Amino acid sequence: MSDQMNTEQTPQSSASPVPGSGRQARAGFNTGISILAALAILLMANYLSKRHYVRADWTASGLYTLSDKTTKALAALDRDVKLHVLWSQASARLDFLDLKEILDRYAAASSRIKLEFIDPDLHPDRMQIILDTYGAKIKQDAQGQVGIEAGVFVVAGEKVKFVASEDFEDFGGGIYGGGQDAEQQGVSRFKGEQALTSAILLVTSNKQSKVCFVQGHGEWQFEGFGGRSLGHVKEGFKQDSYKVESIATQGASRIPPGCDLVVVAGPQKAVLEEEAALLKRYVQKGGKLLLLLDPLIEGTRFVPTGFEGLVASWGIKLHNDMVFETDPRRLISQSPFTLLASDFSPHEAVKQLAISESVGAQIKEQLGAAPVVFAIARSLGLKEETEVVAEPLAKSSTASWGEVDLSGLSEADNMPTKDQYDHAGPVTLAMAVALNRADGISEGGRVIVVGDSDFLSEELFVNAGLLNRDFWSGLVGWLTEREELIAIAPKNPEHVRLNLTESDISTIWWVLGGELLIFFIAGFMVWSRRRR
User: Fold this and answer.
1) What is the tally of structural domains in the chain?
2) What count of other Cβ atoms lies within 10 Å of the Cβ of residue 68?
3) Potential cystine with 326: which of 24, 348, 363, 399 (Cβ 3.0-4.6 Å)?
4) Tens digit of pLDDT for each residue in 301-315?
5) Do both 323 and 404 map to the same domain?
6) Strands 288-292 and 338-340
7) 330 and 424 belong to one structural domain
8) Phi, psi of 87 (to 5 degrees)
9) CA-to-CA dists, residue 41 to 30, 53, 298, angstroms
């Protein structure tokens, strides 16, 4: 009997590894790690960008870059400031994205700045709440349509300042404006930083400086507009958070208390000796004085102003002359007595107008000085053997001189020629003095003398092509020791227009199509190679 052994074998399942599976797993793992790392980097970058706002400004004029004065003012804020921006994204005046970029930089410079953008077209309810709270600003356009003025409400506590859209920009160009089509051609100068920073300083200031204008000698009136009126200057003072009032020195025993700066703007008759002594005592006690002294002329002779002895005690001479300019680059009209200053010193009051010496004398000569116009000005000189040393602020060109002989100027065709009696150019147009107090502890007085007052005329002051306003702001800012308000110069945005013909557009499409075709072919070749 043969035993049959029925053996049942249990199959051993030994799955052989799939070729490449380990490599795919590692690749998938690496991909997952890479994705997580990328997400972590992205989150960290977003976090850092929120904490540390850094943006490049590639505009030629630095349109989006805040000035040092603004950044210092923002860094010194001790309270929150809210900026409620009522601005349509479809605004035809200033581009909303440009405005937002600039305001974002304000917020990045200080955590105290709180922004709220309100588009009247998208958020009418919120806009109405803001208007009910702070008051609507009504404006009528050229077509007679009445509407709400776009702008920014700057608020700190109970103090509110409205910066209107027209305060952000100037249109046109040239020496006296840009013509009828200037607005359609775009913004010629962006001046919003000056307006915004001034508004922020206004609503956060604990003290409001007072500027007192002396009246009673034919000076410029600080009320009204046009002619010899300074209404435009007064409006500027309000924007920079100053108070303004008129005072009389004749018969007065002292300058009224609270005057942080006394201005004598273009007197047309001489002051009395006791008035000059009154102003001297005011300065000796730490007061600040700004004298704008045009040459006083009767017929063909110069007459005293009454300030000669006063300014001489501070090391300044008032010359009896008229500045005559012959350099065509420094003239803006046919009159040789209306001229552009040729040089500004690095003094704190005008350093924003000065050209650095580092550029070299030749380049500096080619560039010329900032465009500040003086008209019928007298020259100033240094008084020798005085304890006080005055510093020049502005000068004319080397081709100018101070003409002392007026006898021939009444004849239209008789142009003066320089002789040995005239004051050789370059002549000084403005000078500054900082005095020390007798106790050696308190801050001394400050004085600026300018041989002209016509630079304040409204025609020159509001001209977008000139920097007369900046010159004035610098003088006032230094005298009142508010250097943060020394003019923030407006900026010139680039207006680049791209005009393409149909042929240009067709060429662009062919180029783009060719690039896409090259990318497609390159991608197909890579895909085919990997598949093989």
Assistant:
1) 2
2) 9
3) 399
4) 999 999 999 999 999
5) yes
6) unpaired
7) yes
8) -155, 125
9) 16, 17, 79
Claim to verify: residue 188 and residue 230 sit in the same structural domain: no
Are 293 and 376 in the same domain? yes
- Written as one letter, the residue type at 63 is L
| pTM of the model as a whole | 0.65
Q: What is the pLDDT of residues 393-437, one digit of tens each?
A: 999 999 999 999 888 776 656 677 888 889 998 999 999 999 876
- Looking at the DSSP bridge assignments, the partners of residue 163 are 152
Instruction: With CA atoms as reference, report the closest residue to 331 among 375, 287, 297.
Output: 375
Name the token pair of 44: 């960290």
Residue linked to tokens 């994705």: 35
CB 267 within 8 A of CB 293: yes
The CATH number of residue 123's host domain is 3.40.30.10
pLDDT tens column, 438-459:
555 556 799 999 999 999 998 8
Which position has the token pair 């080397």? 398
Indicate the SS3 state at residue 448.
strand
Cα–Cα distance, 197 to 66 (Å, whole number): 10
Which region holds residue 440: left if phi is over 0, alpha if psi is between -120 and 50, else beta?
left
Assess whether 255 and 340 both reside in one domain.
Answer: yes
Residue 493 lies in a domain: no
Distance of CA 440 to the CA centre of its chain: 35
In whole angstroms, give the CA distance from residue 76 to residue 242.
19
How far, in Å, CA of 138 to CA of 168, rounded? Answer: 17
Residue 455 CA to residue 266 CA, distance in Å, equals 11
pLDDT, tens digit (0-9, with 9 covering 90-100), for 274-294:
999 999 999 999 999 999 999
Domain that holds residue 190: 68-200
* 227 and 187 assigned to the same domain: no
- Final residue before a domain boundary, out of 443, 469, 485: 485
Q: What is d(CA 165, CA 15) in angstroms, rounded to the nearest whole number?
A: 78
What value does the mean pLDDT take over residues 491-504? 59
Q: Is 504 domain-assigned?
A: no
My answer on whether 282 and 334 are in the same domain is: yes
User: Which 8-state DSSP code applies to residue 37?
Assistant: H
Q: Are residues 185 and 227 in the same domain?
A: no
Give the residue among 276, 280, 322, 271 at the shortest CA–CA distance from 429. Answer: 322
Angle, helices 468-479/231-239, rounded to nearest 10 degrees: 60
Cα–Cα distance for residue pair 137/148, rounded to 1 Å? 6
| HSE-up (13 A, CA, CB side) for residue 275 | 20
Q: Which tokens sit at 5?
A: 């052994």
Calculate the CA 40 to chain-centre distance: 42
* DSSP per-residue codes, 170-232: EE--STT---TTHHHH-EEEE-HHHHHHHHHHHHH-S---EEEEEESSSPPBSSSSSTTB-HH
Burial readout 374-392 (b: 16 or more C-beta within 10 A, e: otherwise): bbbbbbbbebeeeeeebbb
Task: Select from 143, 165, 200 the last residue of a domain.
Answer: 200
Residues 6+ apart with CB under 8 A from 450: 290, 291, 292, 293, 429, 430, 475
| pLDDT at 198 > cutoff 70 | yes
Cβ 151 vs Cβ 163: under 8 Å: yes
Please check whether residue 448 lies inside any domain of the structure: yes
Examine residue 496 and state whether it is found in any structural domain, yes or no. Answer: no
